[in-house]
Specification:
This protein is of the alpha/beta class and 221 residues long. It has one domain: Alpha-Beta Barrel (TIM Barrel), CATH 3.20.20. The chain has eleven helices and eight strands. Strands 1-2-3-4-5-6-7-8 form an eight-stranded parallel beta barrel, surrounded by four helices. It is globular, with a radius of gyration of 16 Å. It starts with a helix and ends with a helix. The relative contact order is 0.16. The C terminus is likely disordered.
């Protein structure tokens, strides 16, 4: 499994982080070009996370996308996730790796140059870099601006996703700072037209949505 997942990760450009969402929304954004789907239910009980996680896993598999569970390595196998994402204050990367095994993916949030550098010494497959801009999804977390994106572009040893208040209107500046991959929340979950918003982000990343979705599905076949 590990090689297959890491190949898919290497081509991923658009990453959606969200709480529980209806199947219709998942199908819409995955069909329009979301490459990675993360379920983040920080305050939910285990039963609710497992139920939602299994739905997310089915949706991701249908469209050839990756599915990552936030901060619950203990539930990765139960929901059929491809990996887990942890923060600096969550379970350690080493502990998460011991729980999920060598084959599944681990992502780590980073908020400073020191954390980007430290990620090179732990068994992670990708890092999140941000928040680039202030965002209500990370209350109390000051924005790191584009400087950390530039630092990650020069020093990260694994793929990185810029995250935090990124939208079609500011994506060009994020790309100019060196980000080839982005993660979003409200840009899609709050969009009046999630399909159009997904396609707009894909265009901003320089890869048309319909071509990307087709390639992902063919690669997963």
């Amino acid at each position: 499994m590990s090689d297959r997942l890491r190949v898919r990760l290497s081509t991923a450009r658009l990453y959606l982080v969200c709480d529980e969402q209806p199947d219709a929304f998942l199908a819409a954004v995955l069909g329009a070009g979301v490459d990675i789907l993360q379920l983040r239910m920080k305050d939910a009980g285990e039963e609710a996370v497992v139920a939602a996680g299994r739905r997310f896993a089915r949706a991701a598999e249908r469209f050839g996308a990756l599915f990552v569970l936030n901060d619950r390595p203990d539930l990765v196998a139960a929901v059929g996730a491809d990996g887990v994402h942890v923060g600096q204050d969550d379970v350690s990367v080493d502990e998460a790796r011991a729980i999920i095994g060598p084959d599944r993916l681990i992502g780590l949030s980073t908020h400073s140059p020191e954390q980007v550098e430290a990620a090179a010494g732990v068994p992670v497959d990708y890092i999140g870099v941000g928040p680039v801009h202030a965002t209500p999804t990370k209350p109390g977390r000051p924005p790191v601006g584009l400087e950390l994106v530039r630092y990650a572009a020069a020093h990260a040893t694994v793929p990185f996703f810029a995250i935090g208040g990124i939208s079609p209107s500011n994506l060009e500046a994020v790309r100019d700072a060196g980000a080839e991959r982005i993660a979003v929340v409200r840009a899609l979950t709050d969009a009046a037209d999630p399909v159009a918003a997904t396609r707009s982000l894909r265009r901003g990343l320089g890869e048309p949505a319909h071509e990307t979705a087709a390639k992902v599905r063919l690669g997963a076949a």
